[in-house]
TrEMBL record:
It comes from Thalassotalea eurytherma. Pfam families: S1-P1_nuclease (PF02265). It comes from the Bacteria. GO terms for molecular function: endonuclease activity. The keyword Transferase does not apply. InterPro entries: PLipase_C/P1_nuclease_dom_sf, S1/P1nuclease. Keywords: Disulfide bond, Endonuclease, Glycoprotein, Hydrolase, Metal-binding, Nuclease. This is Endonuclease.
Length: 282
């Protein structure tokens, strides 16, 4: 399948970032806790090397910048012209008759290739190693938000409006992409520290298998298969194509109950996989 990649989310929406700032912090905080002290120290050293004016996009004054907060850096530098080339790396768009994601779906720049590229750059070291760490960590999280592996025609769900059933409090997220970025994972109203503790306590044993670059296409396909589900509210299947919904998706308590455990599972997978890559690379 031919991939269609355009810089849509980044140019049209300041609200929809993969998993939002909260989700990125959660994933990187969990990944950090899965590493040993030597690896954690290497990460801290790299984070401290971020230029001061770019740190100020994440924390004000001389407040300490943590790795978890630094994982939002790729979203914060979008308006800086020197980083324009990375805008298409936040997502992967394919055609509506595509049944599975493979490496052939990304001929140019995309989030899956971003993981591979910046893992290599992190391993090489050099003066851009801090950037490589933060891009890599951000891309792994992005890859596990299903609507970052979708279609250009509706801006990855940004044009799929949502309304809220009376069974749940109305949230501020007004489209399906935004809801999956932010409002679903934040519906428990926990702090990052509280959520990290809860998920770490219930985390299954981490796989010990070696990470391979080819794995990212499997991860991308996992996300893609989730949004193909009829209950996800994104696809109307016709003639083996995922056609867009004409009306908004209604978010009910049942929808939230079904997909909150799934988004938590995606967060856990992202954290474990990121920790695996970092432990093999640092």
């Amino acid at each position: 399948m031919k991939i269609i990649i355009i810089a849509f989310i980044l140019l049209t929406s300041t609200k929809s970032f993969a998993f939002g700032g909260y989700g990125h912090e959660l994933i990187c905080q969990m990944a950090d806790q899965l590493l040993n002290q030597e690896q954690q120290h290497k990460i801290d050293v790299l984070v401290r090397q971020l230029p001061h004016h770019e740190k100020q996009l994440l924390v004000k004054g001389h407040k300490q910048l943590t790795f978890a907060k630094a994982c939002n850096w790729p979203d914060k530098i979008k308006k800086m012209a020197k980083y324009d080339k990375y805008k298409p790396w936040h997502y992967l768009n394919t055609t509506r008759d595509d049944h599975a994601i493979t490496s052939s779906d990304c001929q140019g720049s995309c989030v899956a290739k971003g993981v591979i590229y910046h893992q290599k750059k992190l391993a090489e070291g050099g003066r851009n190693q801090t950037q490589a760490l933060l891009f890599l960590s951000h891309w792994v999280a992005d890859l596990h938000q299903p609507l970052h592996v979708s279609y250009a025609s509706d801006y990855g769900g940004n044009r799929t409006k949502v309304t809220y059933d009376k069974s749940i409090p109305k949230a501020r997220c007004k489209n399906l992409h935004w809801y999956w970025d932010e409002c679903l994972i934040m519906s428990k109203k926990l702090t990052v520290a509280q959520y990290t503790k809860m998920l770490m306590n219930n985390m299954p044993e981490q796989t010990k298998e070696q990470w391979q670059p080819s794995d990212v296409w499997e991860w991308a396909d996992e996300s893609y298969q989730l949004l193909q589900q009829a209950s996800f509210g994104y696809c109307q299947h016709k003639a083996e194509k995922c056609l867009p919904h004409n009306n908004s998706v209604v978010i009910t308590q049942a929808y939230q109950n079904q997909y909150l455990p799934i988004v938590e599972h995606q967060v856990i997978l992202a954290a474990q996989r990121l920790a695996t890559i970092l432990s093999q690379t640092l």
